Amino acid sequence: MTTQPAQPATPQGAFDHRMAVFGSDDAFVAAALPFLAEGLAAPNEPPPVAIADPGKLALLRDALGTDAKGITCIPHTEWYAGSAANAVAQSAGYLAANAGPGGRIHLLMEPHWAGRAGSSARETTEWIRYESLANLLFAPFATTALCAYDTRTAGPAIVDAARRAHPDTPVYEQPARLVGELDSVPLPLPPPDAERLTAPDRGILRERAGARGLAPADAELFATAVTEAAAPFMRSPLPESLLPDVLLWGEAPACVCELRVHERIADPLAGFVPPSAEGPAPGQGLWFTRQVCAYVDIRDAEPDSGSLIRIQYG
């Protein structure tokens, strides 16, 4: 059985996803002001939102003068406080609570490249994936987003990769292709001393994670995250031969669990589509896993037709 990609509730194309690249404060203000003015003039929209470095927000307030009171300003250290999957939840929650009809709102968004997003090549990959998948995740919404990239913090390699995730650039790549390219990088092999478990049992996972140094609350959260990821592949009755294979390794805080499941996960949005209930909460499957863990990688399991789900906590 293959898990098929989810279909958007409305036709693609409503989400307006733009990119601005600049290398000075003046260039940032020059790009931001027309965008915010567009949002202020848009019918049936709440005030536009600027999510950026606090210093840049101060520049915008100075440039806007009395018009600044019509702009909602949010430091990007508050918006981009966790993983890329957390940013999906932050954006979806904000649209649900604050956007106009159909998700109408203008968002000026500067990723926090001086923080987690730019801290390593691995984190950069996660954020480029987020930028690319946003074109699918928010396609049903009439949101207009301008992603602001400062070359003084993002750097040329990050900017070049980000261009491929924005439809208003000449090098834009469809999300399935770009994400597939990101996922073509092989994962490191499990270490020789990885521990094989008989099944993704929550109690056993909690006990073994605790033995690897996770505090009780973290061990419980990690065990729940793994069992949530495994839940769709644990339908009853299921032959023992089709139960997910489980490998566990690492030491606190970076404990890793790998599930080999006997179904192919073909949907690039698996675990990224926000559930209707507020979360994260048990019962939300891969969404919960992505929200509480540092990394969740999904790969085809060669040579069979299943998938590998690698989950890293911490």
Would you write up a description of this structure?
The protein has 314 residues and is α/β, with parallel strands linked by helices. It folds into two domains: 2-182, 3-Layer(aba) Sandwich (Rossmann fold), CATH 3.40.50; 195-313, Histidine kinase-like ATPase, C-terminal domain (Heat Shock Protein 90), CATH 3.30.565. Helices cover 36% and strands 20% of the residues. It has helices spanning 25-41, 54-64, 76-79, 84-98, 121-137, 156-163, 175-182, 202-211, 216-230, 286-292, and strands at residues 2-3, 16-22, 49-52, 72-75, 105-109, 143-150, 195-197, 245-249, 255-261, 264-265, 295-301, 306-313. Helix 2 (54-64) links the parallel strand 3 and strand 4 (72-75). The radius of gyration is 21 Å and the shape is elongated. It starts with a strand and ends with a strand.
Question: How would you summarize the topology of this molecule?
Answer:
Elements: E1 2-3, E2 16-22, H1 25-41, E3 49-52, H2 54-64, E4 72-75, H3 76-79, H4 84-98, E5 105-109, H5 121-137, E6 143-150, H6 156-163, H7 175-182, E7 195-197, H8 202-211, H9 216-230, E8 245-249, E9 255-261, E10 264-265, H10 286-292, E11 295-301, E12 306-313
Parallel strand pairs: 1-10, 2-6, 3-4, 3-5, 5-6
Antiparallel strand pairs: 7-8, 8-9, 9-12, 11-12
Helix pairs in contact: 1-2, 4-5, 5-7, 8-9, 9-10
